[in-house]
User: Fold this.
Amino acid sequence: MSNVTLKSIDKHYASFHALKSIDLDIAPGEFVVMVGPSGCGKSTLLKTIAGLETVSSGNIEIAGRDVTTEEPGDRGIAMVFQSYALYPHMTVRENMGFGLKIMKRPQAEIDAAVTRAAGILRITDHLEKKPAALSGGQRQRVAIGRAITRQPHVFLFDEPLSNLDAALRTQMRVELASLHEQLGATMIYVTHDQIEAMTMADRIVVLRAGAIEQVGAPLVLYRNPVNQFVASFLGAPRMNFVEATVVQAEGASVTVDVAGLGAVTFGELAHPTPAAGTGVMLGVRPEHLRIGAGSLVAEGRLRLSEELGRETVLYVDAGPLRAVGSDTGTDNLTLLGDHANVPRTGETLRFGFDVFDAYLFGPDGKTLTAPKPV
Ligand code: ATP
Assistant:
C-alpha cells in the first residue's frame, strides 16, 4: 500500500499550467526528494499535497484516504518551511506543542510528545527559551520538532536547510537522514541542492516545467538518466555534451562522428538507431574524462583549474571538440583530475574516455544508449 498517491494532478494559475498530469505513488516510510530548476513546480506540488493550494483536477490520497478537498489540518501532514515559521512570543516548548494544543489534546500528551521530540532533536536544554535566543540550526530543529509532535502520516519539507550555512547544512542533512531512519516516517522533501537529493532520497523525482521527467533511486538517475535534461541536472560538475552526427547505423549498433575526436561506435542502443546523417548529442561526465587515459583520446589546452583539495576541476579548450550548454557558459570541456597530475594553465594535455562511460542522446533529447549497470 502506498502512503501518498497522486493521481493525474493538474494545477492551473489562470492560463499558466503549473502542474501537468502528475502521477506518483509514495510508499510508507519512503524519503522522496523533488528537484528541478527554479519555477518547475516543486513547491506548488508540495503545497497541493499539504492542502495549501487546491488542485485544478486529479486526486490526492494520504494513508488510503482521499484528501483532495480536505483542509490542511485534517490531512495528517506536517510541513517544515525554509523560514521556520516559529511563533516569536512563544517558548520552544509552546511552539513545539502548539499543533497538539489547537487539536485540544490533553496537556499530559502534549508534554510527553514535546519531551520525546526534544530528546530526538537534542534541544531539551532550550525548551524554555524563545526562538530569538536560538541559532538558525536550533530554530530549524524546533520547526522539525513541532512537526514530529504531531505524529503525521507524512512530513513535507520545503527547502528546510536553505537558510543555514554550509557546515550546519551538512550537519542537519545527516540529522534529517537519521531522523528518517529513527521515525520510519514518510518524507517528501523539496530542494535545489543536489547533494541533499543524492544523499537523502530513497527516490528522486525530477521535475521540469510542471511535469515529471524521471523518478528513481539516486544512483539509477545518475547512471541511467532517461534524457539529456536529467543527465544535465544530476551530477556536479555537470555532464559534458558534444554534438555528433550519425555516420553508420547497423542493427542496434551506431557509429557517430565527433569533431575533434573522430568515429565513436556504440555497440548496443536501447532505442531505434537514428539514420545516418542524424544530429545527436554525446554525453560524458567530467569524472569519466581522464588525463592520459581512455580509449577515445583528444587533446586540448588547459584554460583554468580549480583546486578543491580532494580533486581538481579542469576546464579544457579542446578546439573543435566543443561542449554545448556547459556550466561555465563557454565551450570548454570539464574534467575532474587529481592534483598530482594536473598540468599548468596554458599547457596542452591529452585526455580520454571509454565508450561504455558515454551516453548518446537523440534529437528529441531521449537517451539512446542501453542502461548501464548501477
Ligand atoms: P523555486 O525552486 O524557485 O522555489 P519551484 O519549482 O518551487 O521554484 P513553484 O514555486 O512551484 O516553483 O512555481 C511554479 C510556477 O508556478 C512558477 O512559474 C510560478 O511563477 C508559478 N506560480 C506559483 N504560484 C503562483 C500563483 N499563486 N499564481 C500564479 N503563478 C504561480
